[in-house]
Design a protein that fits this description.
The chain has 6 helices and 19 strands. With 401 residues, it is α+β, with helices and mostly antiparallel strands. The strands form 2 sheets. Strands 1-2-3-4-8-9-11-12 form an 8-stranded antiparallel beta barrel. Strands 13, 14, 15, 16, 17, 18 and 19 form a 7-stranded antiparallel β-sheet that branches. A hairpin with a 2-residue loop joins strand 13 and strand 14. The longest helix has 19 residues. Pfam families: DUF7064.
Length: 401
């Protein structure tokens, strides 16, 4: 508002000096009044008290942040900076630096994680994740779907907290490690898994190799500038908001590839070969993603899937569709969920994740994949676990938001 008053005073001075035509001054006054009205107008209420809505200054904020992204990207080039990472600046300069155990930040919820998820056309599927946490803790997730066998999970499922992870992505018999940066990873497990939903414990040995010759997608630098600017412009700006963004920044990248190997269950060997997304790891709404086309990786520019209307109460739909745009083309997706499994992450179960193998149709092409939904969980860790089967999978829990 003070800037508007200064501009108004400057315009009046020019008029007094006879150097500012009256029509120009009237236009200036009108613009200043409109700007003041926008600055003083309260932000629109968030949908369901969660999802921020565009306010009067949305176009101006979008343009300002789009310009900021362009400037940061041009200035940084291919350089890396941990302190100023994100929004066009990468945090690690090479694949060798990215594909290794990272130092944990000084925060009780800090994490350094690697996830692998995938589905095969014959019904086999895998979710393997290891998230290193402070105090020598690890969030370990292993879900394996085998045709004719069923779904296998760790004995502590849906709890994920185990000892380990001090210097490796390893704990509870699960180990995930890189063999060649951005080319080969290994996933191994030896121990007992619980057959779902009977609860029977069986001896399992798993040995899978993830391979890829595709480029990785770095969310620090490869996201659509238009989508990021849209997400930023929707939020109410304040010192606290930008402070939360800085504190919550994560280096996150993904890569598509193939995982193949064997899973031995109770002495019987099963071959497993699946397409996999590898994901070594504050907005109310941000559109993230990418499309692999021959010779290119294209970030999505927009997506019309409104989370406020899909699963806001803790139970996401099992049959739904949405559209998105990437590379100047519009894609249409239909999703059919085949099954759902819930895991809770964090010492106090701060997060509830739904891992759901799905059948997809992208335009006229059939496909398979995983859909992961994450909710904030405020219900805390229960007094007893594992939970009964009726409470384990696909059911919203008290405190989910």
């Amino acid at each position: 508002m003070s800037a508007a008053l200064l501009l108004l005073a400057g315009g009046a001075a020019l008029l007094l000096l006879g150097q500012c035509p009256l029509p120009l001054l009237l236009l200036l006054l009108l613009l200043l009044v409109l700007l003041a009205a926008c600055l003083l107008a309260p932000p629109p209420p968030a949908m369901f008290a969660v999802y921020s809505q565009p306010g009067p200054l949305y176009p101006l904020k979008w343009a300002a942040f789009r310009l900021l992204l362009a400037l940061r990207s041009a200035r940084a080039g291919r350089a890396a900076s941990r302190e100023g990472a994100g929004y066009g600046v990468r945090s690690l300069a090479s694949a060798e630096q990215m594909e290794r155990v990272q130092p944990l930040a000084d925060h009780p919820l800090a994490l350094d994680s690697v996830w692998m998820q995938g589905v095969s056309p014959d019904g086999g599927w895998l979710v393997a994740g290891a998230a290193r946490r402070p105090a020598g803790r690890l969030d370990a997730v292993l879900l394996v779907g085998l045709p004719g066998v069923g779904t296998l999970c760790l004995p502590r499922h849906p709890d994920t907290v185990v000892a380990g992870g001090s210097g490796a992505f390893a704990g509870a018999g699960l180990r995930i490690w890189p063999e060649e940066p951005m080319r080969r990873w290994r996933v191994a497990f030896a121990g007992q898994l619980r057959r779902h939903p009977s609860g029977q414990l069986v001896d399992v040995a798993l040995d899978l190799r993830f391979t890829s010759n595709m480029p990785h997608f770095d969310y620090d630098t490869d996201m659509s500038a238009a989508a990021v600017s849209r997400a930023m412009a929707r939020e109410p700006w304040s010192r606290q908001f930008f402070g939360r963004l800085r504190d919550a920044h994560q280096t996150h990248y993904e890569q598509l590839g193939t995982a193949s190997g064997t899973v031995t269950v109770a002495g019987h060997q099963h071959a497993l070969r699946i397409g996999v997304v590898s994901q070594p790891y504050n907005f109310s709404r941000i559109e993230l993603g990418y499309v692999y086309t021959p010779g290119a990786v294209r970030p999505i520019d927009w997506c019309d899937l409104e989370l406020g209307y899909h699963g806001e109460q803790g139970t996401p739909p099992t049959d739904y569709g949405f559209s998105f745009g990437a590379g100047g083309r519009t894609y249409h997706v239909q999703v059919t969920v085949l099954e759902a499994h819930t895991v809770y992450c964090g010492a106090d179960w701060e997060a509830r994740l739904l891992e759901r193998p799905c059948r997809y149709r992208l335009d006229d092409q059939a496909g398979w994949g995983m859909a992961e939904w994450q909710y904030r969980h405020n219900g805390g860790r229960p007094a007893r676990y594992p939970l009964p089967p009726s409470e384990q999978d696909g059911q919203p829990a008290a405190g989910d938001t």
